[in-house]
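If you are new to this repository, start here. Below is one unmodified record pulled from the training split, so you can see the exact layout before writing a loader.
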Amino acid sequence: MKRLLITAILISAACWSLMAEGLNGTGTLTEHAFRHKGVDYVYYLYIPEGLKENAPLVMVFHGYGSRDIPSIKYGFHPVADKHGFAVCYPRGPKDHKGKEYWSVGYQFHIDNGLMRDDIGMAVSLVKHLQKTYKLSKHNVFATGHSNGGAMSYMIAYKAADTFAAVAPVSGHIMECMYRTLKPKRPIPLMEVHGTHDALSKWNGDPYNDDGWGSDIAIPCAVGLWTAVNHCTHEETEVLPVRRNKVIVHRFVNGTGGNEVWLYEVVNGQHSWADKDMDTASEIWKFFSKYLMK
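And here is the target side for that same chain:
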């Protein structure tokens, strides 16, 4: 009886936690299991109150080893409530270090045989959510922090037929991605990055000094997608200063009206940059340019 009571309390506490997280907005946050190619994943889904049929979907991919249940850390719930879109937070399974991760080509994952089809999972999960919740088949977007930012770049390379635009934050392109993958089509891209990021370095890590694997410089990563989208001009803006100065570089006049935006957080560290700007709102402002009716 005592054991049953403790179990009931734990279940109740878990449910309350998700409800409390949902109260960061006016909608509901729920936890779900998902299996892809024999691998078990977990995802959290935020549905705003009164969400209309055919609503957009934003996928948010966590950083390496992150244990956070979705919260106001990312800031999407109030934005989703205001603009009417669903938010999904998938969780990657753990690696040999016990850290949740996305398979983007880190050297120690390659060495330990831990590469998975996470892109296939993301596409399958999107299709599942579209069918189950009657979400838009066109207005699907991806963002993520750090390892999740690298996942967003992988999506740009390999799943541009499913996702309308991507927005890595403190992301990076591994050199193995850069050397071996070919973009399938132009896709709008936005990157938020601190110039003093010690993990996803602004100037890259060409010699794998940090042990993750070589990655390319952020200006080169953004330049790649600027070229893929055939952008022709740059426009700049400085956001109102909250903490660090943020310079927005907008590369415009691309194929089909596509643009590539780089938010240069001057002296910024490896973060979501939410103390420097309203990151979630800026990401949605970018995504909303590519909504299809």
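Two things worth knowing about this chain: The chain has one domain: 2-290. The two ends are 55 Å apart (CA to CA).
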